[in-house]
Structure formats: C-alpha cells, structure tokens
C-alpha cells in the first residue's frame, strides 16, 4: 500500500498536498510582510509629517520675505508675522501629539526642555511689546490733538480761522511726541510717558482678555517688566547656544530634533522682529542670529533678518523709539509740521495754508493707521503670550504623566 504521508510531510505523489504546501508558505510570507509594510508606511507617514512642517514654515516666511521696503516692519507686516508664528506653533504642537513617550527619553527630553525655557523667556518680550503698543496709543492721542487743533482750520478756505490758541495747542502736543521719539535712551521711554502723561499704576500684563481699559485713565507700564529689564539681553538669552542638530542627533531623536530647532528659530526671529518694530526697553538688536542654509525656511528668515538689521543701521533711525513703519511716518510728519508751525505768520498765506493742509492730512492718515492696527496687534501679542503659556503647561503635564 503506497505511503502518501511520511512523518507529517506530503507524499511526492500527492499534487493536492503540494498545492496546500504552496498556499501555506505564501500565507506565512504574507503574514510576515504585512507588519513590515505597515511599519514602513507608518515611518513614511511620520517622515512626511516632519517634511510638511518644514514646508509650512518655509511657505509662511517666503510670503513674509516678499514684502517691499515700504511694507517691512509695518503694522500689517508685524501682524502677519505673528499670525505665521501662531500657525507654525500649532503645527509644531501637532507633531508632539502621541510622541510624548519618545520625547520623555534622551536626547529629546533635553531638547524640548531647552525650547520650553527659551519660549518662557519670550513672555517678557510679549509683555514689553504690549507696553510698547500702549505707548503708541498715547502717541496717537497726542497726534489726534494736533489734528483736532489744526484740521478744521487747514481744511477751511479761509486763512484767518486759525488762531494763536490753536497753534499753541498743536505745538504743545507735538512737543510731547518729540520728547518720546527723540529720546536717546530707549529704556526711559516708558518712564517718561508716566511722568509727562500722568498714568496711574495698575499693571496687569495680559491678565484680562476682555480688556476693561478706560480711555480716560492710563495704566502704568513700567511695572510690567522691571526698570532694569533689557530687551537686548532677553533676545540674547533666547538665542544663546542655539545650534542646529547634527546627523547623529537627528537619528537619535527620530527626526524630531529638526522641528524643535526650527520652532526655536521661528521663536527667536519673531521676538527679534517684535523688539525691532515696537518701543521696548534697551532695544538694541545685536543678538546673535546664525542659521545654516540647509533648511528650506532658512533663506527667507536670514534674508528678512539682514534687511531688518540694515534698516536699523540707517543714521536717521538709530535713535528711533522703534522701526515700525508708522513710527517712522510719525517722526517725519511731526518734524515737518513742527518746522512749518515755527515759520507760520498769521494770517497764513495761501502757500502756507496749502502746506499745512497737506501735513495735517498726512498726520491724520497715520492716526487712522494706528487706530485700525494697534488693537488687532495687541490681541495677537496676547494670543502669542497665552499660546506659549498653554504649550508650556501641556508639555510639563504630558512629560510628568509619561514619567509615571
């Protein structure tokens, strides 16, 4: 009797057994390949997420770098920058979701702690920028006095309507503006505003999202950050020892070292630009800022940084209260208007009335720009502040739960 099975293996004479064996081998191979394919797909998806984050940052800063010379550091551009920061920060936080177990281990635990420390240092700059926005509101109030005093007379066809009282009122308001804008010591700008404009003390940096500010009372800004605080030193602290990850660091961190470094660079540049634009205490811009050109976002950020630094070296702007475009317009308009008021003889000539009308219209346009842009800018600075605080708290919470 022929033997069809020997010790459990199919007999060579059994074609059905061969088919069964082939199917079994293919099934075993498929079962082993399927997890490998799933793991490869997961790794590819994670790599794509990291690339998408780099592209997100690059796209936003390429858009920011496309601005012309007239738009750089304007209110609209600074708001666009803060919007880009918030979007990039959201994308960065999304990368960390479900990766806290990995982040809690070396070397990522040190990298994320370092980033968190730099971000917390940026909170002081947000507070100082909010104070600077408040300072610009007070400047706008003085400019509105000038426009109210000279506007109706300048717009009138009669050259006899303007009087000495209106001129004195306009000159006094222009003097208040000039003292602040021409102050060589940037750190004294806020203290001067308290002396000359009589603000009452009630410091509450970003404590009330709903506002509650009354226009008839000024709140002290000097206690938001200490008088010895320096924006320049704070920028140096944020950028201190900031180095791009090397190849072995990238491999050891599962690629997350690169987005952490990327977000650190975005944080430093955003704070640097905020200090450049808005009046802050000791706002020197000599903070070290060096980024390798190997990242897709590095070229636009470095280009913008160079442009801002070149702007800061201009002789007529070195002692400015800020490099915000609207501040430069205020400086130019108030200087020209002050010179005109010093030479006007009443009754005005037709030529003087025409020039006065032009200067007042220019000043009115700047007032409108400040009126429309300062409140949205303050809300964005507040949102950056709160977003950093929430992210820092989430990081501590997630890391503590992972460690348990």
Automatic annotation (TrEMBL):
The keyword Transmembrane applies. Residues 346-373 form a coiled coil. It is found in: Membrane. It is a single-pass membrane protein. Keywords: Coiled coil, Membrane, Transmembrane, Transmembrane helix. Its main location: membrane. Residues 192-225 are annotated as: Disordered. GO terms for cellular component: membrane. InterPro entries: ROH1-like (IPR008511). Residues 205-225 have a biased composition (Low complexity). Belongs to the ROH1 family. This is R3H domain-containing protein. It comes from Musa balbisiana. The lineage of its organism: Eukaryota, Viridiplantae, Streptophyta, Embryophyta, Tracheophyta.
